Amino acid sequence: MFEALQEQPKDKILALMQMYRDDPRMTKIDLGVGVYKNADGHTPIMRAVKTAEQQWWNREDTKTYVGLAGDPAFNDAMVDLVLSDSVMRDNVASIATPGGTGAVRQGFELIRMASSKAVIWVSDPTWPNHISILKYLGMPTRTYRYFNAQTGTVNFEGMRQDLSEAKPGDVVLLHGCCHNPTGANLTMDQWGQLVTLMQDKDLKPMIDIAYQGFGDGLDEDAAATRLVASSLPETLIAASCSKNFGIYRERTGILMAVAQGESVKMAQDNMAFLNRQNYSFPPDHGARLVTLILSDDNLRADWQAELKDVRNGMLRLRTALAGELKRLTNSDRFDFLANHRGMFSRLGLTTDQVETLRSDHAIYMVGDSRINIAGLNDDTIPVLAKAIVKVAS
Ligand code: PLP
Ligand code: TYF
Question: For the whole model, what pTM was predicted?
Answer without folding.
Answer: 0.97
